[in-house]
Amino acid sequence: MLDILALTKERNPGEPEFHQAAEEVIASVKPVLDKHEKYRKHKVIERMLEPERMISFRVTWLDDNGEVQINRGYRVQMNSAIGPYKGGIRFHPSVYPGILKFLAFEQTFKNALTGLPMGGGKGGSDFNPKGKSDREVMHFCQNFFTELTRHVGRRTDVPAGDIGVGGREIGYMYGIHKKLTNEHTGILTGKGVGWGGSLMRTEATGYGLIYFAQNMLGTRNDSMEGKTCVVSGSGNVAQHAIEKIVQLGGKPVSVSDSSGFIYDEEGIDKDKLAYIKDLKNYRRGRIREYIEKYPGASYMETKSAAESNPLWDIKADCAFPCATQNELNEKDAQNLVNNGIMLVGEGANMPLTADAMHVVISNGLLYSPGKASNAGGVATSGIEMMQNYIGNYWTAGEVDKRLQGIMKNIHQNCLEAAESHGLDGNYAAGANIAGFIKVADAMIDQGIV
Ligand code: GLU
Questions:
Q1: How far apart (Å, rounded) are the C-alpha atoms in residues 385 and 381?
Q2: Which residue has a Cα nearest atom 10 of ligand 1?
Q3: Alpha-carbon dihedral of residues 399, 404, 407, 409, nearest 10 degrees?
Q4: Domain-by-domain residue ranges, the chain?
Q5: Sites in the chain below the pLDDT cut of 70
């Protein structure tokens, strides 16, 4: 087992996020490999850790000063055993192959957990959309997707949004793809409702996260009602997690961005959330502006990632990290435990460091890994693909019902997979085992390819 990890590190030097994601999965599936010779014989986990294909390309574009800018674009096509590659596109200065490999690897398991036929992929660029004009973003998206167009297809690879890529960027990428191919097909998800998008896709990741939390609380005969919730991030996932918490009678008290966080002890209600949505989605401002509108709240700047973040020291019942990978470290996790937090639900991908995860699990908190609890987004992308195929569109109520059913199934499958390996209540191990078995069996069925 150790050999697989050592080999992964050797073959992918300087990619700590990928090593972290690999290590966690390798440790979880060990009992499965020990029990079933076929997975060892077919070297399934070793094959899963090697992307089927990786594309890297140059993206050149002109900024508003007429200056030529150069970025790198990527697509990692990780695993297509159970369906076309599927996963988001991230635009952020931190993007490099190691981040995308970790995300594409996680995505493979996540997509398998949804029960829908979707393989795993992820793409992106080190382009930073922050502070860029609409025209610059459009020009970048067009040049990025001009290259990617030849690699996508509704039965090949279907990208979507992620950090830095929302409805605006999906629109620009879809527009250029349509022009280049003269085809209006569902090669991206997260499209605008009215031109092939699904109702509820925008809400799905955040809503799904809270549905998953409800299911976890249900195992202790508890619910979201009356729960004070600390939430990080202020993008799509955080916004809709907050919305659902409010709808279910809970009290979200925080939001953050990369500069700092807001603590609103009175709770973020519907009106305050509408302000946040307008600030982040349309005015594209910073979260610190919240206190100008709501002076009862406080704002604190966040320091380096190595220190503990006072956001995770807020007294609450539940914690929902919805910002980015490794945003919550061991010290933060200890603060959660000391403050009596009962549930940690990951909205982002791998927001807890490996040490933080250990602290949370060993202290008996209800803990859900992102690949299970944030799967509602990609599940609804799958539902968008279905609607594109049949050319018929469902109501928000219908989509929401399917989403709730999928989150319930994922929750159940994680619990059962964990239990059947003597790891009762360990959702992290359960998600890895359930996702692994599904993909591994498909790979074995399809032979050595
Ligand atoms: N980027 C999202 C994720 O991490 C959504 C991917 C998709 O809808 O394809 O799952």
A1: 6
A2: 378
A3: -100
A4: 2-183, 203-368
A5: 1-2, 305
Q: Which of 246, 140, 171, 154 is nearest to 203 (CA)?
A: 246
The answer to whether 111 touches 78, Cβ cutoff 8 Å, is no
pLDDT at 76: 99
Helix (H) or strand (E) holding 53: strand 53-62
pLDDT recorded at residue 1: 57
H-helix or E-strand spanning residue 75: strand 68-79
Q: Is 208 in the pocket of ligand 1 (CB under 6 A)?
A: no
Nearest ligand 1 atom, CA 189: 8
- pTM of the predicted model over 0.85: yes
Residues 6 or more apart from 172 whose CB is under 8 A from it?
137, 138, 141, 142, 145
Q: Give residue 12's pLDDT.
A: 98
pLDDT of residue 304: 72
Is 236 touching ligand 1 by the criterion CB < 6 Å?
A: no
Q: Which fold has domain 2-183?
A: Rossmann fold (3.40.50)
Report how far ligand 1's centroid is from the alpha carbon of 295 (Å): 35
Contact partners, residue 88, CB within 8 Å, separation at least 6: 103, 107, 122, 123, 124, 159, 160, 161, 162, 165, 378
Active site residue ranges: 122
* Domain 203-368 in the same topology as domain 2-183: yes
pLDDT at 305: 67
- List, for residues 137-188, the tens digit of each pLDDT value: 999 999 999 999 999 999 999 999 999 999 999 999 999 999 999 999 999 9
Tell me how far the alpha carbon of residue 83 lies from the centroid of ligand 1, in angstroms: 15
Which CATH class for the 203-368 domain? alpha beta
Atom number in ligand 1 closest to CA 110: 10
